[in-house]
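queue> pop job 88
queue> type: inverse folding (structure -> sequence)
queue> payload:
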């Protein structure tokens, strides 16, 4: 998959595929031409899309050739003639020949100087997989394996159906485990009893792939608000990074759990009590959650893990806390605790994508962020 929000992909990004000899793989495929309406063209196109949806998602880049090694070779583009008609045709095929319908299929056009275009067809990993191709009196399930598609075995199909039913609950369970970890469950430390944010970021494929990343002390993601001494603890299934431990309490201000399964939890305090009033500072959440998302995606991508990503965030210990607004002005006290800010699924988890979390944060203190 091209490491850009789909609508932000430019000609320079397409040319970089060739310049850096980007290879086809589990989340990227090159096509010299748009799939035609022949039997083989339709079958192969539907296999490509459903294989991505049944695996980790991916990009079909139309108008780029590949060499014998599967590396991007040349940007040749495709003609604009009948392009809209052809796009309607393939979208009709997806509606009529895929069951259930692929929920995340988007098209982005990149203009070339010679009046041609490159198309990037982005397919998201599906939470309702597996998707089957029902075409020409056949019914087949595909998955993506490195540079190619393959038929799913009966055991893989059965496992995919079982996983699909439990996926939303199991992904939310990952965040519940992070909340428990903040209280010290199965942890060498616990978070201070102050207003705090707990954030879980994982690829949608976290439950499909049996990963065990080689995470060590040198390639961990640091938690938000990390200053001073760095403490690292090697665990059975993760590497934990935390701030210094308070004497006698075993509590810390911030920690991150770098799970070998390929996802990361962050927990950090966003305020404290003083003279009988509990204060929260907006930058401790608004700024730090963006930094946490950015550093998390950078590290996971270094391990070859791609999105779409799911992020879940909860604020704890905020009942009665007031948001400091500046010039000695305070918000009304928060009364929901804990406060689950929801879940976000996105390709990049950038500032715009995280906006629902930010808006929810303000509303907890009685402020309509939209005003």
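queue> result:
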């Amino acid at each position: 998959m091209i490491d850009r929000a789909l609508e932000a992909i430019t000609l320079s990004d397409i040319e970089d595929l060739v310049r850096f000899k980007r290879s086809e793989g589990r989340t990227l495929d090159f096509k010299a031409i748009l799939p035609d309406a022949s039997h083989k063209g339709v079958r192969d196109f539907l296999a490509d899309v459903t294989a991505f949806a049944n695996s980790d998602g991916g990009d079909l880049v139309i108008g780029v050739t590949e060499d014998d090694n599967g590396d991007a070779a040349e940007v040749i583009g495709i003609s604009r003639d009948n392009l809209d008609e052809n796009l309607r045709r393939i979208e009709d095929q997806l509606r009529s020949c895929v069951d259930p319908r692929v929920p995340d299929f988007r098209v982005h056009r990149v203009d070339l100087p010679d009046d041609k275009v490159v198309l990037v067809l982005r397919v998201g990993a599906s939470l309702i997989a597996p998707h089957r191709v029902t075409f020409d009196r056949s019914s087949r399930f595909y998955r993506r394996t490195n540079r190619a598609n393959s038929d799913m075995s009966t055991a893989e199909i059965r496992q995919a159906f079982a996983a699909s039913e439990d996926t939303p609950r199991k992904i939310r369970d990952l965040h519940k485990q992070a909340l428990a970890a903040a209280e010290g469950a199965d942890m060498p430390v616990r978070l201070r009893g102050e207003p705090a944010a707990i954030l879980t970021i994982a690829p949608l494929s976290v439950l499909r792939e049996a990963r065990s990343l080689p995470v060590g002390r040198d390639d961990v993601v640091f938690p938000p608000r990390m200053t001073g001494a760095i403490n690292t603890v090697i665990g059975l299934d993760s590497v934990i990074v935390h701030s210094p431990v308070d004497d006698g309490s075993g509590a810390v201000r911030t920690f991150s759990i770098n799970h070998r399964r390929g996802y990361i939890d962050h927990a950090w305090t966003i305020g404290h009590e003083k003279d009988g009033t509990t204060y929260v500072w907006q930058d401790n959440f608004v700024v730090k959650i963006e930094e946490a998302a950015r550093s998390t995606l950078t590290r996971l991508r270094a391990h070859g893990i791609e999105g779409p990503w799911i992020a879940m965030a909860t604020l704890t210990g905020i009942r009665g806390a007031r948001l400091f607004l500046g010039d000695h002005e305070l918000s009304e006290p928060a009364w929901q605790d804990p406060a689950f800010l929801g879940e976000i699924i996105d390709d990049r988890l950038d500032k715009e994508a995280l906006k629902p979390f930010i808006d929810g944060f303000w509303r907890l203190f009685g402020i309509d962020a939209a005003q």
